[in-house]
From TrEMBL, chain A:
GO BP: phosphate ion transmembrane transport
InterPro entries in the record: AAA+_ATPase, ABC_transporter-like_ATP-bd, ABC_transporter-like_CS, P-loop_NTPase, PstB-like
Record-given protein name: Phosphate ABC transporter ATP-binding protein
Keywords assigned: ATP-binding, Nucleotide-binding, Phosphate transport, Transport
Keyword Nucleotide-binding: yes
Start and end residues of each ABC transporter domain: 18-260
One cellular component term from this protein's GO annotations in UniProt: membrane
Domain of life: Bacteria
GO molecular function ontology, one term from the record: phosphate transmembrane transporter activity
Automatic annotation (TrEMBL), chain B:
Superkingdom of origin: Bacteria
Keyword Transport: yes
Keywords for this protein: Cell membrane, Membrane, Transmembrane, Transmembrane helix, Transport
Protein name: Phosphate transport system permease protein PstA
Family that this chain belongs to: Belongs to the binding-protein-dependent transport system permease family. CysTW subfamily.
GO CC, one annotated term: plasma membrane
């Protein structure tokens, strides 16, 4: 673990943004998430790690109710965003997702222009009153995603024509454009080369100043590099959750230790 | 030497037995493929050349070119150019005018007509020609008093003679035409009074009776088919797309939607005549809509086309990558927004292709239309929609069938000609499909 560059990070006493209590997820009869309690802090990067199939994506998708789109999926327990239960009957998932944005594993820009990709969210949520405001949001979002300089001359070009890393940053810009409070990222770098990965990681660290970021990753190095807090999942259970530095240096659970030293994976 | 022989590696320049067998198998398979494709192409060439060979003649017709003096005494005895008064002069009067003009032309060219009665000479002109001349004059009364050059349709037998269908020998046995008339026709052609020319009437004119094949046209049938396609498009595209979107994106997955799904697939395979029976029972007998009308035809064809469109649309919707849907939902688009902003545009090329394939099928469909009375002989053009949709009309494929049912061999040529027109329309629809697909694809 010594070669791992654990950035010095002070976890400020940030407020709790999302509180999950006794969350259970079932796919039909499969019990995919068992009794998970997690607090996601504001303006903090939280990493979910764990072996493949342990339920990281499933749990992440509970946080903005993307699991609603899967017919057989059933979620139990409470997930509170700013103290409000997001699974309450009165909650419209559409409104929720404007506040809890998501970036997917595979870059999935719309087959439209770069501009339209970023402008789509603000348009459907009525965040702008005129073209000038929209232009402004598009530019600032692309700047936040560290993509502006590369695409500012070809905003009309199709987003699908960008390189993989650029596409993923475009997706981040698209998610950022609706000014979410939480940004969920499901293995955002797994389809990217090391240079693009480094760019996205740098970006995540910057985004932390404005949002709470939750990132799923299968790479422990990445978790160590970008996150302040880390949750280790195993077979649907939350095994250990705490400050990243602690998890990686002094894991309390033998399963965590086995995983970070490469014995389960 | 022996050491080398035991340890020898096979040369890459020599193909071993396995590779040879594999290559032979590949070669054989290619041969089968080429044979299959050649067979298909050959069949197409034979089909097209036979249709073109027998049908192209329908677009050309033998005309008599004559100078006609439209005298006021004969055509407008009251002399007031009132169309209502002039309409009292029947086609018999106009037939006499035509006959006189033909006689004068023959005399002017010095063509011998001995052995032919006036009736026989007049018989070389189509019985339809007086009616055409009459319509022309009634439409423009100012023509009276003038001398005009009129192209009169020749009788079908004379036309057949110039197209090789009628010969001197067959004419000798035919009560409708005599060899002497054919001799005169030859002389007239040499004198420039008669000849084959492009016949726009084949496309625009209505059908004509058994005895006037030369005047039969596709105008009513084309209009009827066009009206029906309009109805099919207007009804089946929105209904089909709405049904597909609901089934694909909104409907819960349970036994009931499964049942609907199975039924739609089965409907696509139901023989088209069954839809005709349904149309007869429901639209005509129960709802009391008029027989032979494009409205009923269009409704029946819509029922027939819907399964095709629904199946194609659902396939196109399924083919849209789920990652695009996730992306839209992930930034807070509603389900409807996701579908209309992202899924539908991506599925559009597939939907359009399916729709046009469905329309093309409907355009060529004959059996159900026979049952709802579109086989009737219709000479009046249907009116302008929407009222015109209730007027009786014909349809192109039924017109082909109608032509083939008639005794005069001249109708064989017209049936093939009608098939050519039908094929041209199908070709145009396919080209339209390609153009639309290109247009929609260019958006990204
Ligand atoms: N759509 C689904 N339908 C059924 N089971 C699923 C579905 N998605 C995930 N699962 C199951 O849930 C478990 C957790 O999956 P996932 O959350 O994707 O794991 P991870 O992201 O940690 O690799 C796995 O056992 C997987 O088979
Ligand atoms: Mg996953």
């Amino acid at each position: 673990m010594n070669d791992m560059r654990l950035t010095e990070r002070s976890v400020d006493a940030n407020e709790i943004k999302i509180a999950a209590r006794k969350v259970q997820v079932f796919y039909g009869t499969t019990h995919a998430i068992k009794d998970v309690d997690v607090d996601i802090l504001d303006k903090t990067v939280t990493a979910f790690i764990g072996p493949s199939g342990c339920g990281k994506s499933t749990f992440l998708r509970c946080l903005n109710r993307m699991n609603d789109t899967i017919d057989i999926c059933r979620v139990e327990g409470d997930i509170l965003l700013d103290g409000e239960d997001i699974y309450d009957r009165k909650v419209d998932p559409v409104q929720l997702r404007a506040r809890v944005g998501m970036v997917f594993q595979k870059p999935n820009p719309f087959p439209k222009s770069i501009y339209d990709n970023v402008a789509y969210g603000p348009k459907i949520h009525g965040l702008v009153r005129n073209k000038a405001e929209l232009d402004e949001i598009v530019e600032s979002s692309l700047r936040k995603a560290a993509l502006w300089n590369e695409v500012k001359d070809r905003l009309d070009a199709p987003g699908t024509g960008l390189s993989g890393g650029q596409q993923q940053r475009l997706c981040i810009a698209r998610a950022v454009a609706t000014s979410p409070e939480v940004l969920l990222m499901d293995e955002p770098c797994s389809a990217l080369d090391p240079i693009a990965t480094a760019q996205v990681e740098e970006l995540i660290d910057e985004l932390r100043t404005q949002f709470s970021v939750v990132i799923v990753t299968h790479s422990m190095q990445q978790a160590a590099r970008v996150s302040q807090r880390t949750a280790f999942f195993h077979l649907g259970n939350l095994v250990e959750f705490g400050e990243t530095a602690e998890i990686f240096t002094t894991p309390r659970d033998p399963r965590t230790e086995a995983y970070i030293t490469g014995r389960i994976g | 030497m022996t050491a080398e022989a035991t340890n020898i590696r096979p040369s890459l320049f020599q193909t071993d037995a396995r590779t040879k067998r594999r290559n032979a198998a590949e070669k054989r398979f290619r041969l089968y493929g080429v044979a299959a494709v050649s067979f298909g192409v050959l069949a197409l060439v034979v089909l097209l050349s036979s249709i073109l060979g027998s049908g192209l003649g329908a677009f050309r017709q033998t005309f008599l070119t004559m100078d006609i003096t439209l005298s006021a005494e004969a055509l407008d005895p009251k002399g007031n150019r009132d169309p209502a008064e002039m309409a009292k002069q029947t086609t018999i009067t106009y037939g006499k005018v035509l006959g006189a003009a033909l006689e004068a032309d023959l005399a002017a060219k010095g063509l011998a007509t001995e052995g032919l009665s006036a009736k026989e000479i007049n018989g070389m002109i189509s019985k339809e020609a007086p009616a055409q001349l009459r319509n022309m004059v009634l439409a423009d009364p100012d023509l009276i008093g003038q001398t005009i050059t009129f192209k009169a349709l020749a009788n079908g037998r004379i036309d057949g003679f110039f197209k090789g269908r009628v010969t001197m020998e067959s004419a000798a046995l035919d009560s409708n035409v005599s060899p002497a008339q054919l001799e005169l026709a030859l002389a007239m052609r040499d004198a420039g009074l008669m000849g084959l020319a492009f016949n726009p009437g084949f496309i625009t004119a209505p059908d004509a009776s058994e005895l006037r094949p030369e005047a039969a046209g596709l105008g009513v049938a084309i209009l009827g088919s066009a009206y029906m396609m309009l109805i099919v498009l207007v009804l089946s595209l929105p209904i089909g797309v709405a049904a597909s979107i609901y089934l694909e994106e909104f409907a819960p997955k349970n036994w009931f939607t499964d049942l609907i799904e199975v039924n739609i697939s089965n409907l696509a395979a139901v023989p088209s005549i069954v839809f005709g029976i349904l149309g007869l029972a429901v639209f005509i007998n129960f709802a009391g809509m008029p027989q032979s009308s494009p409205l009923v035809g269009g409704l029946v064809l819509t029922l027939m086309t819907l399964p095709t469109i629904i199946i194609a649309t659902r396939a196109a919707l399924k083919a849209v990558p789920p990652s695009i849907k996730d992306a839209a939902l992930g930034i807070g688009a509603s389900k409807t927004q996701t579908i209309f902003h992202h899924v539908l545009p991506l599925a559009m090329p597939g939907i359009l292709t399916g729709t046009i394939i469905g329309l093309a099928q409907a355009l060529g469909e004959t059996a159900p239309l026979l049952l709802i009375g579109m086989v009737a002989f219709v000479r009046d053009y249907p009116g302008v929609p929407p009222e015109g949709l209730l007027d009786p009309a014909a349809a192109l494929p039924v017109q082909v069938y109608n032509f083939t049912q008639r005794a005069d061999p001249a109708f064989i040529e017209r049936a093939s000609g009608a098939i050519i027109v039908l094929l041209v329309f199908l070709l145009m629809m396919n080209i339209l499909a390609i153009i639309l697909r290109r247009r929609f694809e260019r958006r990204w």
